[in-house]
Amino acid sequence: MGKKRSDSWPEIVLSTSDSRLSQALRRAVKAGELKKIATRIYTSNLTDEPSEIIKRHRYFLLSKLFPKAVISHRSALEGGISPEGTVILTYKYTKTVRLPGLCIRLIEGPGPDEEDTPFLEGMYISSQARAFLENMQISRTKTTERKTLATKEIEQKLERLIRILGNDEVNKLRDQTKRVSRRLGMLDECTQLDKLIGALMGTQPETTLETDAGMARAKGMPFDTTRVELFATLCAYLLQQGLEKVPSQCTTKQAKTNIAFFEAYFSNYIEGTEFAIEEAEQIIFENKIFRDRPADSHDILETFRIVSNDPEMHRVPQTDEELFSLLLERHGQLMQAREDKMPGKFKTQINRAGNTLFVKPEEVRGTLKKGLEFYHKLPKGIARAIFIKFMISEVHPFTDGNGRIARIFMNAELESQDECRIIIPTVFREDYLLALRKLSRMYDPIPYSRMLVTAQKFTRSISFASYSQALIQLRASNAFLEPSEGKLRFHAQA
What we know:
Blueprint: E1 12-14, H1 19-30, E2 35-38, E3 41-43, H2 50-56, H3 58-65, E4 70-71, H4 73-77, E5 86-91, E6 95-99, E7 102-108, E8 117-118, E9 124-125, H5 128-135, H6 151-165, H7 167-184, H8 187-201, H9 212-218, H10 225-241, H11 253-269, H12 277-286, H13 294-307, H14 320-334, E10 352-353, E11 356-357, H15 364-375, H16 382-395, H17 402-416, H18 429-442, H19 445-461, H20 467-476
Parallel strand pairs: 4-9, 5-7
Antiparallel strand pairs: 1-3, 2-3, 4-5, 6-7, 8-9, 10-11
Helix pairs in contact: 5-7, 6-7, 6-8, 7-8, 10-15, 10-16, 11-13, 15-16, 16-17, 18-19
């Protein structure tokens, strides 16, 4: 149904001191062309709710009703009008004005500062420095309409700025607040803000900090809050599942060697280190290093040496320091032929895959430490295996080799509980990567968890007691095909 409105008037009209306009508005209301929806505000839209009409024109109305006002305090840090329809403006006087669907809190204070941002027809938005200073003011209102953010919220925003922009940019913000505070008479607020930023950077006492992220940063162990939220999501899901334990069928030395061979082969193939199966046999069983691909040869050989080492595959982390040590040891062995990849050292530059930026180098240890807290909440075995594999993949602590290291840790969790390992065959690579992506980008843990459970059941369906028999079964299952060439087929349960 279309809007009933007059073509003679715009949708929103404001009265002024002009007597001729006032008379015209009264005539239009009497003729049914306009209706009054608030003080000084008329509309030609006779069908929509007043709140919807005002919502469409709210910034225009603010600029006309309160010229040279500054969008300030919490509104400046939260992006303007809140979802609930509240906006804080610094103006010539203090007053609360309510319009349909819009609450305007006017706070008496200084007009536009030279560093404030022009917004719309004479309106301004507080500069970032001014906004933080304003939010350090005492707010006596106890309702949701308070003019300032809580101290905890300010701390969260500052910690995020430090995490995203770095200390140098935030120090520029500190310099800006000092300039602005002198002009606006907010020296006390500047002192409090400077102490808070200093505490986050570790240059002032941390006693005022309230958030986990803030205290961790102050102690030199900052973490990626977005990744920690992801870990919490996955942990909560896994705690609800009661996942079935799938016992290992590899009880003999030969079976353990065979499954380790295929685990090393597929784990490298999925990362682009591609060898024919016959070439992998020569590398692993004959210690042959291909002259034209020495580093690739060492990658697959060292992966096998780790995953075939029974005592090594029973080592799982109990503390964060044990986790760091295990990561560095295993990476040092895995990447020993690639000096350019910093074997045995955490990354020093941020890495990425496509549009995904992984955890910053300075936040690797802190994020892993927080992740380990969730890991310890989970039952041993498959739940911890699923979790730690994602945790390491998502942090990406190394320049290279992250996927292989993550899968080694996953299978160490399973091996330590005599549960069946997980092999990701080539044909299952797209399922694997898409499920990882869905959890990482959409916070959906279901496809990722189900994918690994499926891969474990597939691995259990293969008989590794005989190398030749395992090879036959894997080929019959399409394991060596590219994802575009076929689908994974389950062999009959052994």
